[in-house]
Records
---
Amino acid sequence: MVKFEQVTKKFGQITALENVSSEIKKGEFVFITGPSGSGKTTLLRLLLREISPNKGKILIEGKDISTLRSSEIPFYRRKIGVVFQDFKLLADRTVYENVELVMEVSGEGQSAKRKINDALKQVGLAERANLFPRQLAGGEQQRTVLARALVAQPKLILADEPTGNLDPATARQIVSLIDQAAKNGTTVLMATHNADIVNSLKRRVIQLKQGKVVSDKASGKYQE
Ligand SMILES: Nc1ncnc2c1ncn2[C@@H]1O[C@H](COP(=O)(O)OP(=O)(O)OP(=O)(O)O)[C@@H](O)[C@H]1O
Ligand SMILES: [Mg+2]
């Protein structure tokens, strides 16, 4: 589903990723761990085609994403559910409308309403659908972002510290929803520093250090 072939990404003098090769299968749930600055977010941003590698190739379902034309990128991104901390909700739209925005661009028509309500129910926000982001707790905002990521039934979910600023119970709840999506066939890459979550889920763990893969274990533990 996702393949990195000797990917190097530099920002000026800084090498954020160096010669990273990895393959992730459909429906796999993979944690990306590593210290601050090790290249986790860079790896996810490469997959979103927000940035491009200096060297190497990234293949999604066998297709080299560097060959996508700029006109094809919005369509490509629609297949990806994104849970990034800086992916803010629109302040002047309700919870329902924030989730709906993704559906509008997908052009789902009539079935959209049911899917949105299902996604909100899944994340436990059915009763909050008509509130605005400022009326929500942090964890509820984060769950709205998750509903927005799940609603279009993406092939791939990219999550960057999705549990940051959440209490342990809410964090576990968010991760179990993402895990459920993986069990339904969605491929998940989650960058995190949350050792409790990594250790409790017993999924594959790819550990980065200074832009390199230093370990890749099928049922890994979180390591500093
Ligand atoms: N736009 C940019 N311009 C310059 N340097 C950048 C840019 N983005 C990332 N970097 C550098 O690339 C390296 C990897 O950054 P990245 O954000 O991928 O780390 P990270 O593993 O996500 O860290 P954290 O755990 O703190 O989120 C860092 O040294 C960072 O300073
Ligand atoms: Mg990061």
Note: The first helix runs from residue 40 to 47.
---
Amino acid sequence: MTRQGTESRPVAAEESSSKPLTGTRPEGARDQAEAGVRVREMFGRIAPRYDFLNHLLSLSLDRTWRRRTAKRFAAILSRPNARVLDLCCGTGDLTFALERQANDSKPAHGNVAKVWGSDFALPMLTRAREKAASSRRRALFLASDALSLPFAPESFDLVTAAFGFRNLANYEQGLTEIMRVLRKEGRIGILEFSDPQHGFGPAAFRFYFRHILPRVGGAISGSREAYAYLPGSVAKFPSPPQLSRWMEGVGFADVRYELWNFGSVALHTAEKS
Ligand SMILES: C[S@@+](CC[C@H](N)C(=O)[O-])C[C@H]1O[C@@H](n2cnc3c(N)ncnc32)[C@H](O)[C@@H]1O
């Protein structure tokens, strides 16, 4: 397992304590079922302002992160008749980036990759479908819970999730579902926020993320809860080495991650062997 990019190095065993696999628990949620309902309602409420706030609060870096993620999977997207599922797709921005990359990586024979986006918050999906219709995208969107996917085993060559995996109420179940629907030699890509600990850049980022972003996001979206939940959920989310161990634990091979933007964003990749 390696951390890639300019700081590539093996992950030391002591970097990951053996925390038990858990899941998100928004304030007040007593169990997994309640956590899921709260997350779904919360994202449903912020759907109308979600894209605007994403681009504003990240200074449009979110577009670069998704584009870069899609590029990392150019090889798999160039497989003839590849099938791709973007989980927790929200308003579809990673789904569309994957579709664009698939068109750029056309296979020599067979059809261009087919891309699906799925999410359980209907207002997010409505927005994704409107965007698809207005820009003549082919991606298809469907409502489904990432913890219980309505797909047969071995349906996809690639399964991704951008800033969504952290919100699952049960991470092990999420990874196991992804493993189930992936074909052999299929790949997983999880793009997530991380909580960088050391140095001036990370400290500045943490200050922004914990103190400025929740205020601006809360004021513009009208949901203080959602934008207060964001830094809290990132702080509680496992570190990249820990998530990597969990991915290995459910059987993924070639588990890697790379860190971007002072370590505030991590792209995890692995293969179903
Ligand atoms: C922060 S948004 C990310 C949206 C999109 N992937 C992006 O890059 O902007 C998280 C999304 O995950 C979805 N989500 C969280 N838990 C889910 C679950 N169990 N099943 C399906 N979608 C889920 C939410 O509804 C929300 O749309």
Note: The chain has a mean pLDDT of 90.
